[in-house]
Amino acid sequence: MRKAAAVIALVLTTMAVGSKPLVSAEPVVPVPYAAFHWNVSGHKMNKNSTGNGMVKAAVDAVNNPRYGVNPPAPAPRTNTVDLVSFNELCFDQFVELRKQLEGWASGTTAPYARFIPGVPANTIDHDGVTPVCGSGEFGMALFSKHGLGELEQYQLPPDDNTYLDARGLVREAQHSLACAPLADRPGMKFCTTHITGTSTTAKPYGLHQIQAVQKRLEKLAADGDTYLVAGDFNAQPSYGRLNSMYADSVNTPANHDNTGMHRELDDTDTRCPGYGEATAAGNLDPTKYKRSCGKNLPPSEGGELPKIDMIFVRKDQLTLSTVYTADTLTIPTSCGGACSDHNALIGKVTLNVHTTD
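The structure corresponding to this sequence follows.
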């Protein structure tokens, strides 16, 4: 496990030029949060299964998170995660997760789970034959021990990812930023997103979606909301399309030229400062490949494992002096093989949250 690094947040009254101050004059209190994010490949790899091991692996990780599972690791810390997000989740898997996490969320009487569909039920995959998620919905999910208010879903610009609907017509998948206020502190928003992997000069879909996410987050901050956003951004920290997300205080060989307002909870990783640990194995064997740290490694060095999953917080919402940290979990192999092509990411942070809405 890498060592956590202290980051001194900017005082709210001396924010960087061009940033917008929080509009609310209400008092804030420091609140610690621990967030868990995992792209579970619910359709492609797990084929809508609720009993092949993926759901169990997710529930076990949420209930007993281990920061830095690559040895040496500390003993499990029971129930330290209170915010959970999933990408690429089938609705049947969401229902089973909600059932198995009921005890985890027993401290709230409010709804603790929200599903965000990106592909509707009764659709066919790209091969023209395979039902997506066993003909169920496919999307993202939010869970919180604090309970969740009404879901706020913001559609992002489309990409070229399509599916066939029940009538055989080609439809576009829906990408969104989904946020929900915590029931016990409505001024705190928990968000998730899944950005498209297509982003080139000819097809800048990923760039446009990240810009739309950033615009909405700026609106939340201007309204006085504190937020944490987790998701698969399908971009490495070193990529230019994330420069407007990362704060200029993130300035390392692996991640520089940044102009944004956010810190990512693994950007203090001492082995790859500004970048963090790899989160995506793709079709590669993570035991045989080195992580990229923002570099394109030659074949002689075993290829490249990138970081594309993030947990972002706004730098002017960090407490005056805070230690934040994040680590990846080893991809479970209890699903008849790997349970996903992504690592789960767990982060801890303390944020300033308004005491009233």
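Residues 5-12+30-354 form a domain with the Deoxyribonuclease I; Chain A fold (CATH 3.60.10.10).
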